[in-house]
Amino acid sequence: MYTIKKLAQKVALPVSTIRYYERVGLLVPQRGENHYRYFTEADVLKIKYIKVMKYIGFTIEEIKRLLQLDETPLEAACIAEMDGLLGHKEKAIHEKIKQLTLVLDLMTSMKPQLMATNDEQQRPKINQKIATIYTEISQKGE
C-alpha cells in the first residue's frame, strides 16, 4: 500500500495530479481509519495506463470510458465501443505520423541549404514542401 506521497514518487507525478485523477473518477483509493488515501499496485498500473493513454492523445473522459469498458464484462456493445474509441485514435495517430514524416523530410531538405551560403536551387523545393505540410495540417484544423 502506498500513501499519496509515495505513489506520486513511484509514478513520477505531482500529488495534485493524483488528487485530480481521484476527483474525476479515474482512481478510487482506499481510505484508512485515519482517512488517509492508500493506493495499491493495481492503482500504480492504472496510473501507468493513464499516462500512456494521455501520451497517445486520449482525453481524460476517453480514458475514463476506456477504464470503465475494461472493467465491464465483454459484451458485443462493450467490444464495439472500445473498438470504436481505439480505432478512432489509431487513425489519428497514423495521420500524425504522416504529418511528422513530412516535417522530418522538410528538415532533412533544409540541411543542405543551411550548409550552403546561397543555394537558391533548394529554396523552391523547400517552399513546396512547406506548402504541402501547411495544406496537410490546415485540413486537420491545427
TrEMBL record:
Q: Does the keyword Zinc apply?
A: no
Ranges for domain HTH merR-type come to 1-69
- Which terms in the Gene Ontology molecular function aspect does this entry carry? DNA binding; DNA-binding transcription factor activity
Which keywords does UniProt give here? DNA-binding, Repressor, Transcription, Transcription regulation
Has the keyword Metal-binding been applied to this entry?
no
Q: What name has this protein been given in UniProt?
A: DNA-binding transcriptional regulator, MerR family
Q: Which organism is it from?
A: Isobaculum melis
